[in-house]
Amino acid sequence: MGRLLGRLLLLFLAFALLYPLLRILLLGVGEGLARALGNPFYLGRYLFSLQYGFLSALLTLLLALPLAFLFRRRFPFREALLAWSTLPFVLPAPVVALGFLALLGPRGLLGVDLYGTQAMLLLAAVFYNLGLALRILLPVALCLEGPLRAARVLGASPFRAFLRVGLPLLLPALGSAGLLVFLYTFSAFGVPLLLGGGRYATLEVEVYTLLAHRLAFAEASGLMLLQLATLGLAAFLYLRIPSYPLSPGGLLPGPRPWALTLGLGLLFLLLYAPLLALFLEVDPRALVRAWASEAFTPLPLALWNTFRFALPAFLLALLLGVAYAVAARGRGGLDLLGLLPLMVSPVAVGFGYLLAYPSLRGSSLLLAAAYALLAYPLLARALLPALRSLPPSLPGAARVLGATPFRAFLKVELPLLLPALASGSALALAAILGEFGASLVLWRPEWTTLTLAIYERLGRPGEGPYREALALAALLALLSGLLFYLLDRGRGRLG
Amino acid sequence: MLRILAAFALLAFGLAQEITVLTHNSFSLDRALIAQFERETGLRLRFLKGGDAGETLNRAILTRAAPIADVIYGFDNTFLSRALEADILLPYRSPEVRNLKATLLLDPTFRALPVDYGWVSLNYDRAYFKDRPLPRTPQDLARPEYARLLVVQNPATSSPGLAFLMATVARFGEDGYLDFWARLREGGVRVAKGWSEAYYTHFTLYKGDRPLVVSYTTSPAAEVFYSEGRYQEPPTGNLFPELAFFQVEFVGILRGTRNPEGARRVVDWFLSRPVQENLPTEMWMYPARRETRLPEVFRFAPEPLGSVRLDPGAMARNRERWIEEWTKVVLQGQSPEAVRRARR
Questions:
Q1: Contacts of A41 in chain B (CB under 8 A)
Q2: Which residues of B touch A365 (CB under 8 A)?
Q3: A6-15, B1-10, B82-91, B301-310: lowest mean pLDDT where?
Q4: Quick check: A240 contacting B, CB < 8 Å?
Q5: Which chain A residues are closer than 8 Å to B206 by Cβ?
Q6: What is the ipTM of this complex?
Q7: Residues 6 or more apart whose Cβ sits within 8 Å of residue B187
Q8: Which residue ranges of chain A lie beneath pLDDT 50?
Q9: What is the predicted pLDDT for the residue at B6?
Q10: What local confidence, expressed as pLDDT, does residue A221 receive?
Q11: Which residues of A touch B193 (CB under 8 A)?
């Protein structure tokens, strides 16, 4: 069965990813790459993307490392805080951007205008990725107590023990977390597009501008290649990072648990203030106006479109995700290939579809395929570890008792996998609901989803449309957050 | 009996016929006019808004193989060459063409027909400048007393922004326009994404902090028109006719339309007298049709003398480079010399 599912996935990947990418390659390899590299303007954009990815990773790690050590301790509301830190990861980019505008924009609550500065972009990157880094560092940090204590017993000072024993053991996790944050921010789209003010644009944003405003296919594909090469290198490094086998450790008692709760609570309040600002700034009347809007896509239509595309896309992503996880359970080769969609930027996918399937331009099939493609690896990533930890004897036992392989999977393995499946589904659904880059490229005016309805209003930021955008963003944040909690209940299987 | 059924079927088919018009976000026309057109022709009109004028045109080009509309309206002379090169339009020599101003017929193949024209220009807030002297020349904008007073649109994402950039190229030439922009940058010019953001968010008339904005020569008249009697005189005025940029907006039939006959009727309608007379107070542009009555309020919108024009071929060849160079100088803070050196 694994082989069959693997083939199904490969077939989908060939049509939905490889062929469109090949078309970009053909267009960009010759003239496009030369033009993109020969023009210092684009080189500048590339350098900025590198710098943004690098600085974001550094900042996130600097904050996540001490936090991971604090979260080793037991204190009230520890789980809630941890869950809260992963929430931004599933929030759509326009929601996050509007949250930052509500707090630190030209009309922001704080009265400090950071719009169009690098500081705001970096803050947004930390906001997005801190939870992710924490999730990766925490399991390792939890195992450090034994080795650290051993070093202390042998006479090392706490600082020296950390430097000589703790840090080397943490290095692989730091590397993984750093590379993941780099991957995500280097190719970030929504946040730099909405908050960069034209001055700071990642390659992804520049590709979009080249395409949507200037229709420069050759340059866009040249930039796309540059980005793919960089992301490929980072992903290669990510997969090469070894991890030390560590004996698991438990939570430590907190010395002053309530002080920890209070301190971390305040810190989190500060870090996630943009989200609060978003809700504080919402004007219910704007929601009513958005409902019956004549100038923009009215809310009921946007909601309908969102569900209309999300449902088939999710079902497809579910099928692909399960197929991939089952097929990749044993083999590593497929593992890398199946993760390829995580490396490819959504804008590139949309762009590739326009090139590869000109006769389908304007068919909703493309949008559903793009959503499924971008969402299934998230689902599979959550499912795969659970699948691998199932004892292989389990289906064997079922088979001996007379079950067919399919029946054994359905009756024995699937129930054990359900929690992981729910987590993965939450991630995939949130990704589909908030998808922005591919939607924007493939968009037709009558397809406007909730995410695009926000962008549509932000395009004309008088006070009225801005208020409507805020209200829609709050609605979408609630929707994504609710979905995430209903399905995942704070388990947050990420990374 | 069969004949009656067939007639009904035909009628039902005729009633269901829908013509989709792709336009930019600022499109607006009197609803009564639209309803009248639908009654008279049995066609149903649907307007799709595709974003900024440039973005809208690009949507049409990208969806060329499966067109999302029958008619496109609103791309201007700065983008005319792109529309013609992409070959997305069907030629149509409307009978109304002979009524149009000859100077506006920029496409001899009649694929793009002019609907209206106007000027992008600097507006100032009269109240703010009541006791302060106005800048007398464009160069004055760089002087310290005018620092941080101007908001412009990003030419990469906005067509009035692009028009204003082109006006500076036309006025100061390839060698000088970057120096002018570098001086504006040092004077703290603010860059907005699009026209409505600049006008309704940053302009002092709408509680912003910038009393100078890139807009249209007709904007002062529009302010009086929409003020419901509050203003007898425009609260804003135009500055520097020598920086006003001539803009023509076109309509065209998209190749691949399923209803070419209906599309032609829509184009004729755009050029007909009732629509042309409605345009000025809806789109705030001048009608392309000769001898069209202008609304009374247009006495506040005199045509600027000595405005600049650029050759469409030169605009087509250099548009991308100008935008890049502008971004480098204004947004990224590079020096004009460095940018000119990189040109070679």
A1: 324, 327-328
A2: none
A3: B1-10
A4: no
A5: 462
A6: 0.74
A7: B141, B142, B143, B144, B146, B147, B148, B150
A8: 492-495
A9: 55
A10: 84
A11: 198, 459, 461
Per-residue pLDDT tens digits for B130-158: 999 999 998 888 888 888 999 999 998 88
Give A382→chain B minimum CA distance, Å: 37
Q: Å from B82 to nearest chain A CA?
A: 9
| Mean pLDDT of all residues belonging to chain B | 89
Q: Which two tokens mark B250?
A: 């076109």
Q: Which of A40, A198, A446 sits opposite B154 (nearest CB)?
A: A198
Contact B146, B187 (CB under 8 A): yes
DSSP state letters, B225-293? HHTTTS-SS-SEEEE-GGG-EEEEEEEEEETT-S-HHHHHHHHHHHHSHHHHHHHHHHH-SEESBTTPP
Closest CA–CA distance from residue B295 to any residue of chain A (Å): 25
Predicted model pTM: 0.83
Nearest CA-CA distance, residue A16 and chain B, Å: 19
Burial B133-153, CB ≥16 within 10 A → b, else e: eebeebeebbeeebeebbbbb
The residues facing A259 across adjacent strands are: none
Predicted confidence (pLDDT) per residue in B79-118, tens digit: 898 899 999 999 999 999 999 999 999 999 999 999 999 9
Nearest residue, CB atoms, A361 vs list B66, B157, B200: B66
Up-side HSE of residue A110: CA atoms within 13 Å toward CB? 17
